[in-house]
């Protein structure tokens, strides 16, 4: 379709609209960066979910499990490498975070492979059962996390180099948020390049639109789907690891909590659309932070309101996917 | 007679609770063009989809090139060298014309000579090369759908109503293209409502009625027998002049 | 007679009939059979959850839609009564006002959500309800002036329902006080609600719902406005859930997010309906009884296994008493795969 810029414009519109309400430019910058960081972390977790839905009409209500697993695995690795985390060298810090994040992605990805086999595959095409079984998967996964890591929350602290904030006059920008923004943008760029510039990406986009025809061209969409599912799970693990560091605590319920935001984001974006997911995530992140500042009591309600407004404007989400 | 390239025996297909095909039987000889005709709702599209493995055959056998392909997965069937142009065209609207064809060329980069040959027939595709396919006109989409099937040599082309919505000049180009293909590398099975087109192009014909093949034979004989046409297709005496 | 009370929907299995009679009679005589505040509490919980699960089954089993917002309506009913009892004092007028307000809010919300998202698809509806319910839960804990926040509300029940109220001496050694009255209020109301639900699902309206569940396109083609029917069904379910919530508030004299709004309760209801058997009201009854029992006694069983395995590191954790949900979750998944009709479906098959 022709490039549709309107939804994209919502982001600057929201930013500019918030400025007079917030008043102080310094707070505005801080909140905006926080909103972008939060939005991009959600985007990382949501991108795979929206693609698997687009490809095979599968919505994994247990997606939160991968987020939680990523957070726990990363936390374990970082706790094991505690001396490097607290060292006063950014390189040692990164040497701890790198393996932690990698481990989170690998474990979540492998788990995704198993989840697809055991939980999702037997109920393809049966939406009701799919919702039930994947929710069941989430319940069991959450309990297993408690079996392995114990029922109590784990406290994490960020490595030395990522504590504190950059100061520009009276503007303070937390270092960790900058990192989150950078990682989020890198993931987005990688996904966008893959989807638009590679044959694999073409296949995925075509498959989202009409999987049956992709098969008639001789491609095995099942394999494609499993691949996307695994990558999506690994990204959820990455997002979970980042979220854990952001919150500095990890609990078994983290997955289910964040998954709600993830769902809102992919509904806003249009189920199946990665671009929409990106815009939706930023909108949700920014709104949550602005409203959290302006009217803290209704912060989470604001996301629902945002979703309702978007759906009133475009009932299929910002970027509806052309289906069949 | 040599073994046919494609043969259907007693094929039965159900869609949901409905029993649509009641034992379809016909052959497609190698190296010709077989027209699959029949009234609306006779089961032509369902037959093509069953061949492609997109509907399950509940009974019967489909053989391609001496091999049983009944209920094989669709991609495996396509990989045997069968291309399919669905009635709905099913072009990928989000992808450009180029990207649609890149995907269809499964074995690698597109062959420029072949591409030029296609452009010669369907000039619009060249003009809108970088345009998202969703913005093409109906007829242009149809051209793209056919081009996708012939961008690489395939043994058998299954084409559902290729002339729908096309201007006469483009139909003439399509006739040329199909002639070249059937005289060269491919065998074609084409569903068609336009009897004038069918008569010009078909070597043989299979006519479906109510989920069965009611008649199979040469096109010349069928075209000469207006009573039979009247009976099977409900064609008026003047529509095929 | 029995036929018409049950709306012609007989158990159709000897074991099921036996179990149902046992539950009906067991709950009726529970205060005398198992005296004591704790067991009375369990019995009242069972009554309330039977209604809650049955109303959820109207959606899941009969209409074929998954809502994650069912506890929201349950909470609305509970908070309606709790708030009005807190604000207006412990009178029956407060109970009436709270119940009606809760009912209205539940119905309005269900209508809005339904019209918004039921025309699309099952998955969409499930996602939206999940989002709305979680936002609502957070909202309820934020608006602490009204709801008491995380701690919830503690309030006094109408005088006739308090332990201090007495309407006679003792009967079979059980004191005839307001708690007993309260229990029978909950019991009777639950029984009545179940019979009403039975009537609804066995009415022509219920048949249309099931037709839509089987094939929405066909139902639409025959001329049924599927959105309207589904929205009405979700309103009825929401209203019933709100009434169940009101009953809970009337029973327990305290209402908080954990006991009414949390996702854990939602999971409990899902387990009840799926394990008991989707698409039959009796399944919800059996499932609710089973789950409340499991919550109270599976833990003891696990504790035994846990003790036996105490040396083995991970295995002992698997059987930790707090991990009962793990095992029910596994049972839930297996049920969806292998016994989609649940326990009741199995019983009826074997007839
Ligand atoms: N998805 C479906 N569900 C139910 N019935 C279907 C479906 N697709 C086709 N049918 C029915 O199967 C029968 C045959 O349809 P089919 O599309 O094969 O006919 P056709 O010969 O291609 O007709 P036309 O010339 O109109 O394209 C029709 O009666 C149609 O209503
Ligand atoms: Mg057709």
Automatic annotation (TrEMBL), chain A:
> Any stretches that span the bilayer, and where are they?
33-53, 65-84, 90-115, 176-195, 224-246, 258-284, 290-313
Keywords from the UniProt entry: Amino-acid transport, Cell membrane, Membrane, Transmembrane, Transmembrane helix, Transport
Extract the InterPro entries matched here. ABC_transp_permease, BCAA_transport_permease
Which Pfam families does its entry note? Answer: BPD_transp_2 (PF02653)
* Compartments it resides in: Cell membrane
Query: Would the keyword Secreted be found if you checked this record's keyword annotation?
Result: no
| PANTHER family, sorted | ABC TRANSPORTER ATP-BINDING PROTEIN, BRANCHED-CHAIN AMINO ACID TRANSPORT SYSTEM PERMEASE PROTEIN LIVH
* UniProt record similarity statement: Belongs to the binding-protein-dependent transport system permease family. LivHM subfamily.
> In its UniProt entry, what is this protein called?
Branched-chain amino acid ABC transporter permease
> What organism is recorded for this protein?
Reyranella aquatilis
Automatic annotation (TrEMBL), chain B:
Q: Enumerate the InterPro entries for this protein.
A: AAA+_ATPase, ABC_transporter-like_ATP-bd, ABC_transporter-like_CS, BCAA_Transport_ATP-bd_LivF, P-loop_NTPase
Segments forming domain ABC transporter? 6-235
Matching entries from Pfam families are given as:
ABC_tran
Look up the domain of life of the source: Bacteria
The cross-references to SMART domains, in alphabetical order and at most eight, read: AAA
Gene3D superfamilies named in the record: P-loop containing nucleotide triphosphate hydrolases (3.40.50.300)
Per the record, the similarity remark reads: Belongs to the ABC transporter superfamily.
What are this entry's molecular-function GO terms?
ATP binding
The name this protein carries in UniProt is ABC transporter ATP-binding protein
The record's keywords, sorted A to Z, are: Amino-acid transport, ATP-binding, Nucleotide-binding, Transport
UniProtKB/TrEMBL annotation, chain C:
Q: Where in the cell is it found?
A: Cell membrane
Which residue ranges traverse the bilayer?
Answer: 15-34, 46-74, 94-116, 123-143, 184-206, 227-249, 269-294, 301-319, 325-345
The cross-references to Pfam families, in alphabetical order and at most eight, read: BPD_transp_2
Write down the membrane topology: Multi-pass membrane protein
List the InterPro entries hit by this protein, alphabetically. Answer: ABC_transp_permease, LivM-like
State the UniProt keywords alphabetically. Cell membrane, Membrane, Transmembrane, Transmembrane helix
Q: Which domain of life is it from?
A: Bacteria
UniProt name for this protein: Branched-chain amino acid ABC transporter permease
The species this protein belongs to is Reyranella aquatilis
Q: What is the lineage of its organism?
A: Bacteria, Pseudomonadati, Pseudomonadota, Alphaproteobacteria, Hyphomicrobiales
